Amino acid sequence: MVKWKFWKRAKVKTSPAGEEEEIVVGGSTSSPPPPPPPPSYGGNEIEVSECIQEIGFGPYQYKVIFVMGLMSFADSSEIWLSSIIIKMLVCEWDLSTLEMALIPACVFFWYAVGSIVAGKVADKLGRWPLLLAAYYVICISGTLSGFAKSYVFFIICRSFTGGGIGASYGVSVVYAQEMVPKEKRALTNLLLNIMWIAGGLYECALAFFLMDRHEGWRYVIFATVIPCYLTLILLHFCDESPRYLVLNGEEDKAREVLEKMAQQNKSELSEGRLVAGQVTCGEYSAVFKQPYTRTSFVIQILFLCNMYTSYGAIFLIPDMMSYGYCYMSEWFDVIYVTDSVEGCINYTKAEYLFFMVVTLASIPGYIIGPWSADLIGRLPTFYYSTIGGLVITLLLLYCISSIVIYLELFIMLTLYCIFNAALWIYAPEYYPTYIRTTAVGILNGISKLGAAVGVFATLYLDTISLKLTIYTYCAVMAVASLTTLGLKSETRGTLLLDARVNFAPVETTPNYGTMDMEPEEEGGVKSGEVG
What we know:
The radius of gyration is 27 Å and the shape is globular. Helix 14 packs antiparallel against helix 17 and helix 16 runs antiparallel to helix 17. The chain has a three-stranded antiparallel sheet, with no helix packed on it. It is mainly α. A hairpin with a 5-residue loop joins strand 2 and strand 3.
């Protein structure tokens, strides 16, 4: 039997002995070309963290932070949107109290689901495709919600938007942290937080200028989705995280990204083979196994406490002014105005301005938080911000004067934001690449339960007693203060890990332990091993 190999210009026939012989047709006999040899990068082995440290901070990182910052801006705008337009929807669709409450509840619920699911997907399939898919969902569902003619269709659209935001936010923070040197991680967090604040201000400004129009909420939605489309376009010019690529065996692609990074930063990339341990990425169970068990539960409690107080305070402060707590209403006219004809409750322009003031008040905290985390460490920042938050919240119970109350509220918001900023620096640093987005997704997703409970409890308890609400905040901050004592792993000045599970020991404050993740007797793993 003769087999023709047209692409080789030869045919193969079987000899009487049963062996195949190649016959040349119009050319010389040639064997298949050998596979190309693997690229040689030198005899030494290097890790991605070392390469990023060597490349430094430059134009490539500016591009990454700009795109992720714009994403943070867009996420913040979409999250604020439901709170901004909800009163107008009550009037237009004659919604009940339950239907009104379901709008932010659905957004938060699907935010949590999106965050938890996306974390695993990003560790399995990559950061970049996950962010791209999430923003296609956000852009489509966000746009459709502006055309909604019914309450049900609007709820469905906002649910998809909430899921997309939950999917993108935690992964975007991790992606940005993975692309910068260790000494710039706190600065990166600061810039992302500033963009988050800017997104809230943008949304308040849109409401101030557009909500008094006929169906002004639709104009607000369409204007809100514009930054989402800009982010989606810019995402197409971003690269996959080289940490993820190396961990999944794509060393050549990782080196291409690192070489591009070095070229844009006008720096050199050392020769050497990129290495990382062989592990299974994106397993939920790994987040709560040794050596991460205790710290994972501690961080989760801290996230819940922070979300409870931070989101609840957004509603507590207007209620304190509306109910005239300690003569606060003498300063601003921030009360709800009721339409006597339709029975609708709408926000006034003064309230939109007040929301902007509250948002601006968080800026000092998001600046001091990263600065403090780099100066004294992540763990001391946790401890001092929670203790300070507890003390200043207790002082709100004593009415000295309205000026003192406003000053205390400003300090309280600052301390809550310091706590939040330090958490978002610490969590991505603590976990290795193979479960980093999985862990951050779980922490971020479940923490939104704290936000939902905090908002509900604040709105409900404020109708009974403002002091009762403040007491609950004190209790939550006391829990957070005690919980911080359970953290032993300081991450300041450490390289991000890929597959190994132990931090390299560095000099740190004795009161806050060393860089070892867990003691050996509690199931810790020796350096270089993977649990």
